[in-house]
Amino acid sequence: MTTLSGAEILIECWKKEGVEVIFGYPGAATVDIHHHLENSGLKFILTRHEQAAVHAADGYARSTGRPGVVLVTSGPGATNTVTGLGGANMDSVPVLVFSGQVGRMLIGNDAFQEVDIVGVTRPVTKHNYLVMSTSELAQTVKEAFYVATSGRPGAVLVDLPKDVLAGQAEFDYPRKIHLRAYQPHLTPHPRQVQKAVKLLKSAKKPIIYAGGGVISSGADEELRKLAELLTIPVTNTLMGLGGFPGTHELSLGMLGMHGLYRANMAIQSADLILAVGARFDDRVTGALASFAPEAGIIHIDVDTTSIDKVLSVDVPLVADARQALKAILEALGPVPDYDQSGRRQWLEKIANWNAKFPLTYDRTFRDGIKPQAVIEAIYRLTSGKAVIVTEVGQHQMWAAQYYIYQSPRQFITSGGLGVMGFGLPAALGVLVARPGSTVIDISGDGSFLMNVQELTTAVEEKLPVKIAILNNGCLGMVRQWQELFYSRRYAATLLKHEPDFVKLAEAFGAKGLRASSFDEVEPVIVEALNSPGPVVMDFRVCPEELVYPMVPGGKGLDEMILHRPEEPPA
Amino acid sequence: MELTTEPQKRHTLSVLVDNRPGVLARVTTLISGRGFNIDSLSVAETMEPDVSLITLIVSGSPKIINQIIKQIRKLINVIKVTDLTQMDYVERQLVMVRVRTIDENRAEIMRLCEIFRGKVIDVSPKSFTLEITGGESKLRAVLALLDQFGIEELVSTGLTAIARSAPPKK
Questions:
Q1: Which structural domain range is residue A240 located in?
Q2: Which of A174, A178, A198, A223 is the most buried (most CB within 10 A)?
């Protein structure tokens, strides 16, 4: 065994865990780690804000399934990670933040750049640690990676006092770990599987409601097999997009507040819902009292707390989504018996809903740029193969509706916490993980400014992110609520002064392009895609465009607003 | 979750946890973060020094309590959560109370103390300090009686509880 300093032990642990890249920002409390990191062979990416470092690690993790790692200093460095941690944790993404801390003797003394970050981040992490001796460091790091990546993955913070990093200890990386109090339940209960199979076979109008768990457990193949085997239509949550091929004839697209008419109507009329790795979020269910009134529910989730949290379910299946679907497929056998003619009628009914109210906007409009047209043009010009990352707001919903996702990890968005400013740094993380891929951050003029400093990181690290700002001069999603439900009093949502985004891009050393008319949209996208470096595209879109369909707050999924009301609401 | 009008019920939860710094804070912030009050709390080491037992009492509708239990179970350092209210159990609390005395009532106070199987643990010219253990209703009764003599000071532990026999396996 060799004796190493805490800082060196940390780096050795990262290597043992297969970490290749660390995102972060240095400070006095972590300078020892950076000193050794420089010659370690690991890559460090300097973001220009700690929040962005966490989003970048988050994007890296979402696009690969491997944990994202962050290193920040104590005090403000650590508190700046709170939003990133909360976002990753809510969306079940394995992200680890290693934060510097003041020396052990100074903890609790209001020392310079001291904050009780373990206390601060307790509610926004899956778990966190304060390491109080160098000899415990390796064990703690091993545990931290295990907790972040197992069961329902999540965010973990490890706080490292400066003298623990400077202290010496023998390095011995534990190979296995056993936590008495934490043992994720991954295999489904056979009796519940049998119950699920029975319901699936006898259902007349079944629907699969698939969430992010399908992607994080790698269950997309099994999901497709099951849907095809029993001819069950599939609707995806925002987090689940890409978990089922969007062009598949059984795909209904997204459900929920801004879900497709056919998807929401199908949920409301279904007699059986198979929920896979989804948690009946309020943006999905609408008013609970009227949610899927006729449906029995089978709920697969690795997190016990997700089951029966919102709705009581008929068959709970606490398990890894992939293992649960495998067990169901096995129990069904190769040629299961089900009512095929009934199924044809069900699919026909759904097709009729879609014919009645398809997802649409005015495609003939030429007096300006419809934001949806920009998304459709990006879809065409990237042959549907780009990785799309988004910020939060109207543009995010249009990106979910009008770009069709074929594969898992192709659509990366902040779902649960809804973090504006997530997209640009997350897109950089995706590019670090998948060099050479086409990565487009679909943004709004509000969100873009929330982490705009990361253009520097993009230019410095030569990460050719393409940013498409759907610039409507306002904070569109809130403005939409104001237009529909707050008598058009546009309080605090009109952006009266904005920077020139083209010049701003240029000032950072990136390319800036602008499209002000419909005819300029395609050429701008083509030029951006053909440019080697980061590009900011400023699309001046119609500010009055709203996201439809929309289920107003407190309404049922079948009470969607489908288009702009003729008269302004009173 | 809607603010419910469902009937609220007190639940005594027995939570077995790793005996490590911060674990109690994890359990209590989880409850307080959802806007629920902890009515009573007690913590102590078990026979195994690296395991502690937290006994806590919270009130809520069955749905909320169920969710709180699951959320507590989900904490990395929590080994086991038992809702004792679902089974036959005994709960006790210890109270120390200093009562004002005059010569005429000292005998009566001592008799009261005996009836409730308490102990006199300190005596001064103008007061007695009594130690009484019991369940909530017994303690409420004895304190009401002592109050007529004048209670100078009162301290109490949280309730702690134990199942009457090994809980059935689920």
A1: 190-356
A2: A223
